[in-house]
């Protein structure tokens, strides 16, 4: 798909109407059908032939989930041949489940700490591939460390922070390229 977002080649996209460039189609092909299977239902569509070759874009937006595409070509003699199936995942959702100041030393949950190097833990869905943190309004970003527990990312600030109110900005990115930002105020 030309709309493979996030990690190239992972067949994931956050586009609900991804465009597929159909390659290796012989010049004597007169008809190209794309069969799409989603949740046990298969629907067939006719691909479009343009100056650059054959392509397919779903006529209506797809919801989140897996879609298996099989391309069948027909030549002038009436011979048909299906392709190897390709499964594509549409993923338009992302979340930050929880941002926690781990070394909160005041009343539990008040986000007040006496520690000059605060430690944070971010809980996210397991498809999140990157967690970035900033305490200077987004000018400088650091990467959190993925823990051995699925969906948990940790970071301990490496330098002493001055006393006072701070805002931690958290930016998460999943495999489909979806991004979300959350914040945590702490003192």
Largest sheet: 6 strands, mixed
CATH architecture of the largest domain: Sandwich
| Domain count | 2
Q: How many alpha or pi helices? A: 0
Strand content: over 45%
Structural class: mainly beta
Spell out the CATH superfamily of the largest domain.
Immunoglobulins
Number of strand segments: 17
Reading the helices and strands in chain order gives EEEEEEEEEEEEEEEEE
Question: How would you concisely characterize the structure shown here?
Answer:
Helix content is 0%, strand content 48%.
Structural notes for this entry:
The chain is mainly β. It has 2 domains: 12-90, Immunoglobulin-like (Sandwich), CATH 2.60.40.10; 98-186, Immunoglobulin-like, CATH 2.60.40. The chain has no helices and 17 strands. The strands form 4 sheets. Strands 1, 3, 4, 7, 8 and 9 form a 6-stranded mixed beta sheet that branches. The radius of gyration is 24 Å and the shape is elongated. The model has no long low-confidence stretch (mean pLDDT 94).
